[in-house]
């Protein structure tokens, strides 16, 4: 699956490509909020007025991408939660008005498939349309769906808009806080991985890819990916080893590692195990840039494509690389759901 | 000298802007006789339900559904007349 | 499309706690839409619902699960239907846990059925509730993965009312690649204050039990259900395993008209049905029964009928089984797929209940009474959701 275009709105300055060209935002916050562009030129007011943050960010990424590329044959999104800001607004209405007369916009906008639906509506796209809500493997599921789609239409040239979105709202922040996902103390993102305490910080954003079956002008390709919802720490070596073997690759063929280490002392050991497997490798710890959220592997994929094209080099740790050609992303959530994504030039 | 009706018009328009989140619009921008569901403002069926909620919460007027509402919810003039005649708040 | 077949089914709904009970109700025109017994809401006394006749406590006990571990009602009914489906398909624990088995589920409500706990937690009102980690739509699937030690591909989709129909299509597509040997696909949704109030705010709920395709229909009745099917490649089925039906084709597209209403020319529904027929290598006249989306809303039933009129020279017998169980949201697609399969297996058509005056605009009308002894080879099942997501599935008798 060839990536011919991409765009992201994130807690870094990806919206105007400063980040890709070397900018780095030091984040000293409990919440890594997305840096959003002004949407007035991109989204008509008549639509923008209704949009919660997730849909707004999603559309804010989709429309520019769609504006500069031919109409895709399908739109596939992954989101763990969808429009939660709207969700809590509707929830609060239910309680405040005691299930009385309520306004519908929040409800309609809170549905996880609202984004894919809105993109289809605004771009008049009647093609294949799907939303995956598979928690912290939602992006991986969307990726699988896209791969299936291209496989089924092997004989024709096809294009897919593939993306992910996640927002922070009071709702999910509070719920995750009660679920003990976040650090009690404040540490800057530069020191995140040295913090030796449990939890991390949450981020948000939308990352999208314009995929084509035609390799012409491609920036990179999604070569392979694998997921698991049930893996012990002892099995991680085999999980990665067999994945590489299936692609006829060895540890030495990986030029750069993108790891989802997030400063959570209770689960970072999985990544340390992985680092032992690979030895010294140019590595990017992408959650230092954007925090932790369910579909962050989409952002990691975005970073991988940028790195493969000579951008965002300032993020690489462990040594100065030559321009990498093969990047492996390993990410897990809660050490329960694990994913590997291989992206190559 | 502002009449009660003129005050009600401004008040209603402010509610309209708030409920429908009509970004960048002020009461002065909304003409009294322009159809709400026409080209200019471009409101749709979800907005018609929001309007029904507005009338209920702010003026105590109960309209059952958008179909019934569409006869009343034509433009600012018709709505304000209806409010003046039927408000219970 | 490689021959994909259904080898197992499991369902729990307001008309039965098992497939057999569902079938009995279908044959005897027994509707499950009435005042709720377990569901607590401001609307429990004023609206009717297709509620499953089993409490959470009873479900927990029957399934042998411990209290206090965050098993939401969505999860409990999902587990019950899942168990029936895998037993029906004669899957061993090793089959279920295998890396060659995929699990594709769906839910719109997820753990939000406990709306009050959700409000409490989302607004940080005191210590966390039992369900603080269980609100996500994917939670019920994760619970099942954990209980069965499933090591294969998992996915959860949410395309509103077409969710589980899409789960089935996705399952078939996965099977065709040869990467997996079996797929358990379906969905679960239970009654929740969140959805009841959501649909009510759109003014599309009916006060009386819904009557899809009736001139005086007022809206939908909400229901709850969970259902799963097991899909395999026909060539892999051997021994005593029974083939329930063939899954012949599907069509997925987007209406791209409005967030919560179908276009007047029903372009999305038409395209979904056309794509399904094309994929199944069938013509419209090959369909002997349509299980309609038929929610009972003014908008859906007339636009869906219009789509029929444009696609079929002679519209075959059709009905909405939502008149039995209400609209079960994410579970609707798979539940109606199962009802379509039961129609094929028993060679009969289940009616659209409570129609007094069929929609006058068309020359055809739905089946009004239970009709046995109908030769049925192929059934088309429709699911059209918010966000314009339109899906049509085709099931066929397996010879």
Can I get a quick summary?
Chain A has 345 residues and is of the alpha/beta class. Chain A has helices spanning 45-48, 53-67, 84-96, 105-110, 114-122, 138-152, 170-178, 236-246, 269-278, 287-290, 296-308, and strands spanning 2-9, 74-78, 128-132, 159-166, 205-212, 220-228, 256-259, 283-285, 326-333, 337-344.
Q: How many beta-strand runs of chain A?
A: 10
Characterize the main sheet of chain A. Answer: 10 strands, mixed
> Which regions of chain C are unreliable across 5 or more consecutive residues at pLDDT < 50?
none
The arrangement of helices and strands of chain C along the chain is EHEEHHHEHHEHEHEEHEHEHHEE
Which secondary-structure class do the elements of chain C indicate?
Answer: alpha/beta
CATH class of the largest domain in chain C: Alpha Beta
**H/E element sequence of chain A:** EHHEHHHEHEHEEHEHEHHEE
Radius of gyration of chain C: 20 Å
Say what the CATH topology of the largest domain in chain C is. Peroxisomal Thiolase, Chain A, domain 1
Give the overall form of chain A. globular
Outline the low-pLDDT stretches of chain A: none
> What would CATH call the class of chain A?
Alpha Beta
Kindly describe this structure.
The complex is a heterotrimer of chains A (345), B (89) and C (399). By secondary structure, chain A is of the alpha/beta class. Chain A has helices at 45-48, 53-67, 84-96, 105-110, 114-122, 138-152, 170-178, 236-246, 269-278, 287-290, 296-308, and strands at residues 2-9, 74-78, 128-132, 159-166, 205-212, 220-228, 256-259, 283-285, 326-333, 337-344. Chain A has a single domain, classed as 3-Layer(aba) Sandwich (Peroxisomal Thiolase, Chain A, domain 1). Helices cover 32% and strands 19% of the residues of chain A. A 10-stranded mixed beta sheet of chain A has the order 3-2-4-5-1-6-10-9-7-8, with helices on both faces. Chain B has a single domain (4-86), classed as ACP-like (Non-ribosomal Peptide Synthetase Peptidyl Carrier Protein, Chain A, Orthogonal Bundle). Chain B has 4 helices and no strands. In chain B, helix 1 packs across helix 4 (76-86). With 399 residues, chain C is α/β, with parallel strands linked by helices. Chain C is 32% helix and 18% strand. The radius of gyration of chain C is 20 Å and the shape is globular. Chain C has helices at residues 19-27, 56-63, 73-88, 93-97, 115-122, 139-148, 163-177, 193-201, 267-279, 298-311, 322-325, 332-346; strands spanning 4-12, 33-34, 49-50, 101-106, 154-157, 182-189, 225-233, 245-254, 289-291, 318-319, 378-384, 389-396. Chain C folds into 2 domains: 4-236, 3-Layer(aba) Sandwich (Peroxisomal Thiolase, Chain A, domain 1), CATH 3.40.47; 248-396, Thiolase/Chalcone synthase (Peroxisomal Thiolase, Chain A, domain 1). Chain C has a 10-stranded mixed beta sheet with strand order 5-4-6-7-1-8-12-11-9-10, sandwiched between helices. A two-stranded antiparallel sheet of chain C has the order 2-3. Chains A and C meet through helix 3, helix 5, strand 3, helix 6 and helix 7 of A and helix 5, helix 6, strand 5, helix 7 and helix 8 of C.
């Amino acid at each position: 699956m060839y990536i011919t275009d991409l765009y992201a709105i994130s807690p870094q300055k990806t919206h105007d490509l400063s980040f890709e060209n070397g900018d780095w935002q030091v984040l000293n916050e409990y919440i890594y909020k997305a840096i959003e562009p002004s949407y007035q030129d991109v989204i008509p007011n008549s639509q923008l007025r209704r949009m919660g943050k997730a849909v707004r960010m999603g559309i804010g990424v989709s429309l520019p991408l769609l504006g500069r590329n031919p109409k895709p044959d399908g739109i596939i999104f992954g989101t763990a939660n969808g429009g939660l800001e709207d969700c809590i607004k509707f929830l609060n209405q239910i309680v405040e008005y005691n299930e009385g007369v309520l306004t519908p916009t929040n409800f309609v906008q809170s549905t996880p498939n609202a984004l894919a639906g809105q993109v289809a509506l605004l771009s008049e796209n009647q093609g294949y349309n799907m939303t995956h809500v598979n928690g912290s493997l939602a992006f991986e599921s969307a990726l699988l769906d896209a791969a299936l789609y291209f496989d089924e239409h092997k004989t024709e040239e096809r294009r897919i808009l593939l993306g992910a979105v996640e927002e922070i709202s009071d709702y999910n922040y509070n719920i995750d806080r009660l679920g003990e996902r976040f650090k009690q103390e404040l540490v800057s993102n530069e020191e995140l991985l040295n913090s030796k305490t449990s939890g991390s910080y949450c981020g948000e954003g939308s990352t999208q890819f314009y995929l084509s079956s035609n390799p012409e002008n491609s920036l990179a390709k999604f070569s392979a990916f694998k997921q698991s919802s049930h893996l012990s720490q002892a099995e991680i070596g085999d999980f990665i080893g067999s994945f590489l073997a299936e692609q006829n690759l060895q540890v030495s063929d990986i030029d750069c590692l993108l790891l989802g280490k997030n400063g959570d002392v209770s689960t970072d050991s999985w990544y340390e195990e992985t680092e032992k497997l690979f030895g010294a490798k140019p590595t990017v710890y992408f959650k230092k840039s954007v925090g932790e959220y369910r579909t962050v592997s989409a952002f990691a994929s975005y970073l991988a494509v940028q790195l493969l094209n000579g951008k965002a080099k300032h993020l690489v740790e462990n040594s100065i690389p030559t321009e990498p050609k093969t990047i492996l992303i390993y990410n897990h959530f809660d050490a329960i759901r694990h994913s590997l994504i291989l992206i190559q030039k | 000298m502002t009449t009660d009706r003129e005050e009600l018009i401004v008040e209603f328009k402010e509610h309209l802007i708030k409920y429908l989140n009509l970004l960048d619009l002020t009461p002065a921008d909304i003409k009294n006789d322009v159809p709400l569901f026409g080209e200019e403002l471009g409101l749709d069926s979800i907005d018609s339900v929001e309007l029904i909620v507005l009338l209920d919460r702010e003026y105590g007027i109960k309209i059952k559904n958008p179909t019934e509402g569409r006869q009343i919810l034509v433009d600012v003039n018709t709505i304000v007349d209806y409010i003046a005649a039927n408000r219970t708040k | 499309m490689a021959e994909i077949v259904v080898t197992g089914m499991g369902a729990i709904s307001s008309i039965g706690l098992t497939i057999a009970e569902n079938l009995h109700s279908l044959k005897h025109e027994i509707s499950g839409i009435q005042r709720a017994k377990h569901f607590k809401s401001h609307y429990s006394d004023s609206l009717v619902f297709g509620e499953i006749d089993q409490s959470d406590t009873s479900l927990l006990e029957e399934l042998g699960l411990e209290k206090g571990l965050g098993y939401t009602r969505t999860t409990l009914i999902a587990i019950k239907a899942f168990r029936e489906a895998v037993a029906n398909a004669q899957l061993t624990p090793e089959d279920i846990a295998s890396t060659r088995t995929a699990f594709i589920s769906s839910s719109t409500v997820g753990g939000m059925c406990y709306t009050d706990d959700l409000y409490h937690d989302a607004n940080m009102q005191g210590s966390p509730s039992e369900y603080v980690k269980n609100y996500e739509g994917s939670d019920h699937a994760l619970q099942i993965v954990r209980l069965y030690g499933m090591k294969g591909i998992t996915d959860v989709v949410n395309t509103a009312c077409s969710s589980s129909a899409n789960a089935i299509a996705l399952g078939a597509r996965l099977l065709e690649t040869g990467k997996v040997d079996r797929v358990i696909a379906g969905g679960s949704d239970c009654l929740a204050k969140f959805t009841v109030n959501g649909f009510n705010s759109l003014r599309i709920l009916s006060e009386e039990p819904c009557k899809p395709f009736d001139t005086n229909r007022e809206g939908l009745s909400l229901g709850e259900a969970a259902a799963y099917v097991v899909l395999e490649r026909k060539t892999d089925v051997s021994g005593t395993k029974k083939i329930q039906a063939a899954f012949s084709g599907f069509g997925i597209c987007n209406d791209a008209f409005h967030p919560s209403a179908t276009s007047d020319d029903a372009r999305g529904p038409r395209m979904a049905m056309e794509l399904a027929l094309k994929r199944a290598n069938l013509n419209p006249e090959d369909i002997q029964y349509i299980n309609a989306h038929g929610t009972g809303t003014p908008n859906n039933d007339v636009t869906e009928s219009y789509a029929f009129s444009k696609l079929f020279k002679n519209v075959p017998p059709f009905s909405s089984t939502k008149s039995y169980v209400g609209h079960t949201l994410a579970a609707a697609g798979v539940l109606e797929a199962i009802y379509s399969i039961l129609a094929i297996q028993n060679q009969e058509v289940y009616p659209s209940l409570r129609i007094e005056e069929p929609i006058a605009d068309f020359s055809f009308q739905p089946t009004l009474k239970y009709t046995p002894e109908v030769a049925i080879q192929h059934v088309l099942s429709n699911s059209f959701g918010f966000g314009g997501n339109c899906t049509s599935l085709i099931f066929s008798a397996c010879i």
